[in-house]
Protein: Malto-oligosyltrehalose trehalohydrolase
Amino acid sequence: MNPEHFSVWAPERDRVRLATGAQLHEMTRDDAGWWHVEVPGTGAGTDYAFLLDDQEQSYPDPRSLWQPEGVHGPSRRYEHRTFDWTDEGWTGRALAGSVLYELHIGTFTEEGTFNAAIERLDHLVELGVDLVEVLPVNAFDGTEGWGYDGVLWGAVHQPYGGPTAFKQFVDACHRRGLGVVLDVVYNHLGPSGAYLDKFAPYFAGSTIWGPTLNLDGPDSDEVRRYVIDNALGWFRDFHVDGLRLDAVHALRDTRATHLLEQLSSEVDALSAALGRPLSLIAESDLNDPRHTTPREAGGYGLTAQWCDDLHHVLHVALTGETDGYYTDFGTPGALETTLRRAFYHVGTWSSFRKRSHGRPLDTRTVSGHRFLAYLQNHDQIGNRATGDRLTATVSQERVLCGAAILFCSPYTPMLFMGEEWAATTPWRFFASFPDEELAEAVRTGRRREFAEHGWGESEVPDPMDPDTVRASTLNWAELADPAHRGVYETYRALIALRKARPELSDPRLDRFTVEAGDGWLLLHRGGLRVAVNLSGAEVSLPVAAVSTLLAAEGVHVGVDTVVLPADTFAVLEV
Structure:
């Protein structure tokens, strides 16, 4: 067997040893601060770790691909080339025109594994989904969690099935024509198992979530490489089609070329080499068009971004909630204004932030497909005290009105797992840190946060309780219930209509007109009109319809008017 090469970047260490089982191997440092050693008799499946200076504690590889014993245990050698892919004919899935479906592997099925999720992929195909967006699968401490406390970004969480099982999931998606978007977190590391700073100056401060990376200080070139190589690896080695970049506003980078711009440039180069589209989707709190502006026009060149303003304005219209950051979105005209331009705050006053916020985008040149719109997602459900979904607050009929706006808009629609049948299961915040002190700190912090908003301690579910995870797991049996099935069929029909009528997926914002009155909306989509009544009373709108493409029960379409009872919608050809 040929000797295997091991390396690790540790520029400030005087000595580094590699541990393979009970054997220790001295490593040699090069001029760039990388330590190297070749070890005979090792290969795929070999467990290894590093000892720094003269310490006796060993640490996993910062670039580990496999952590079968958890984030505190040794790394295991993994060979990408041994996996037999069956997606040679896969040409990718572009974001424009697509419908996304966000899911969490641990609660998507009762088993909480990649293999179990594969068994449900045909449901997504039948629904009409194009891209499956998977919450983070990187290794984190404990067995159950959202995934945003990852500490080894290249290793796939073992309780989900590990790296090979994730490849099988991606391969199965591609066989069914589904692309895969993976949620990745580069803005911080989790609170347990983040050993990067033991090796090198990876850290440069902290956020409310955990330590942040050194992206622009001394020795930051290699840290940036760590991020970019990780991103490229998901595309190249795991065949994913897109990355959703968590909270990019928390990336601290003062360089002339921002990390996001460098990343988009290298991903575009890889896309050309692979011959399929690769997407980068930012989550940003900044309302800054620069993220999706092409690099040649001075932007970062990302494919798209989540658009919370669209969520907030739809949430307020459906629920009437105007607390916290929802306050501004209940002002007169907010709904139609935001639908027309994606951002509500465009350099305007934000009462929640107590300052002006955002920057306008040019609707004449910016494509609406670059902004993801959603009624619900993991954050907007899970960050509520009890993790309650929309249908715990408003009627199914009212939620379907929101779905009609969503799927008939010029934006890229995304739905959260179970939304398509009005799932009654909540989706709550949960974790499973083995360290009792850390677990109690998370539990106490969660309760204190919501106590400030008037919630009693007993009303906030314990995030460390296994029952919290079980309550958040989808109940697929609900699909057999006629009421839930009816919601599903409407979602399916709306998605099918969006795909059948190009006017509905047309992303050109300068051709999108919104009329609005007292609780009603009329979306102009080429030769189609989407009428939605959220007023609470019957309304009559002047629409001369040639045919009715889709309508809720009780809608009456006349020669030149459409009459909509409360909480109904209609898609009409004029």
User: Anything to note?
Assistant: The radius of gyration is 25 Å.
